[in-house]
Amino acid sequence: MTERDTAALRSLLFSRYPAMEWATFLRWGWRDTGETLVVTLAGMDPPEPGDVDGRVAHVAIQEPYTLRTALAAEKHRLGVGVAHSHPKGCPPYPSPIDDDMDTYYADYLSGFAPGRPYVSLVLSEMGGELAISGRVFWKGRWGLVQRVLVKRTPLRAWVGGRRPVPDPPARNRVARLRSAFGDEAESRLRRSTAAIIGAGGTGSAAIEVFARAGVGRLIIVDPDHVDESNLERVHGSTPEDAALHRLKVEVAKRHVATIDPDCKVVALVGRLPQKEIVDAVVGADIVLGCTDQHHSRLALSDLAFRYLIPSIDCAVGLEGEAGEVTGQVLQITRLLPWDTCALCKKMTLMSPEERESRRKAAREAVERGEDPNPYWRDMPQLNTVGYLTTTAAAMASGYAIGWLTGRFDAPFETLQMNLVGKFVDVADRRDPPNPDCPCRHIVGWADQGAIDALVHPPVHWPPVRVI
């Protein structure tokens, strides 16, 4: 769920707190990975006056509200469900009344939304914290919600309504981080999953930052092998890796094990948005894009708004002129579910026609005696170097750690820095969204927005492999 929707849901369901309950119907996107079912909150259908009986303390949904929700489901592709509150201090353990309600709705709504999951959530406040349990009826059987993911919100699912087990003892190896961000920050990082798309210069540095910070699980994706020219940039690589042409994900997995043997690593040889890669990363808490590839940026943005996965894209570039390095540029782009997507941002995705149009505008600016740089810069691009990729990765993974721990946010949309520019030449590039873009209309739709996906994998890509 997004922060915005979680806050709205909490405000609505706790509107009669502390003693009385409330409820609302919800719409859900979903993705069946074969091993898990990931459901994403796509919208609320809050009750109108009289839809829920306010004369009683428990939840009593009136038939017109139920029918209106069911009829609406015939006109959209999403799953349907209900969320309701328990009184303050009461665990989110389903009561016999809740059991009867879910049994009825799972059957009734299947007549209007066949083949779609029915999702039921129970929310309560326990010790000042939000407690959530849930269950899903899918393909003829019930399953319990195992994880609840909301950016910057310290949530653990109360599986079956039971209190989560306590966190393991603190570790001295991250004592400095714990002293800065608090004990809860360490436990949140240990429970988190970070996905890194690309294990080259930028990705390998981000992987090392995550491993040293104590992130509990890493998903690493890259299709390539190490060669000798990579040794200047790829953290953990050795001359032997280049000589043997080892896979970059293999090198990254080995390097993480030398840093934190307790960190679980899923190493995948492949690319976004191949199905197996999406299946693997769709349940991550955060995704970093470290490929500097246009198709990967589009896929990363697609993950953010369709599956509600907070994402960050990293890019670096060196510019040169007259034998000198004139630009050392970092670009870190925040891709949150409600942010402008990569397509709207035009993240270096200009067509040949647009490039020529911008060159023409630059020439006309020169003729007017104006600066042509806002329109086009014909600066030669140089191969990037390790200290630049490491700098970008350290910054991007730092913002990711801020999200995972709930301690700070990335206060920009697209951060651009020129390390050799005056005062580091920092800018926050903000692009307005296209109102007709899918990123404005299918937030949280998961696979049900697949027909509006920004990018699809080419058929000639090799199949995904797990290392």
Descriptive key words:
single chain; 467 residues; alpha/beta; Cytidine Deaminase, domain 2; Rossmann fold; 2 domains; 10-stranded mixed beta sheet; 6-stranded mixed beta sheet; 13 helices; globular
Describe the structure.
The protein has two domains: 159 residues, 3-Layer(aba) Sandwich (Cytidine Deaminase, domain 2); 295 residues, NAD(P)-binding Rossmann-like Domain (Rossmann fold, 3-Layer(aba) Sandwich). 31% of the residues lie in helices and 22% in strands. The chain is built from 13 helices and 16 strands. The strands form two sheets. Strands 7, 8, 9, 10, 11, 12, 13, 14, 15 and 16 form a ten-stranded mixed β-sheet that branches. The radius of gyration is 24 Å and the shape is globular. The mean pLDDT is 91.
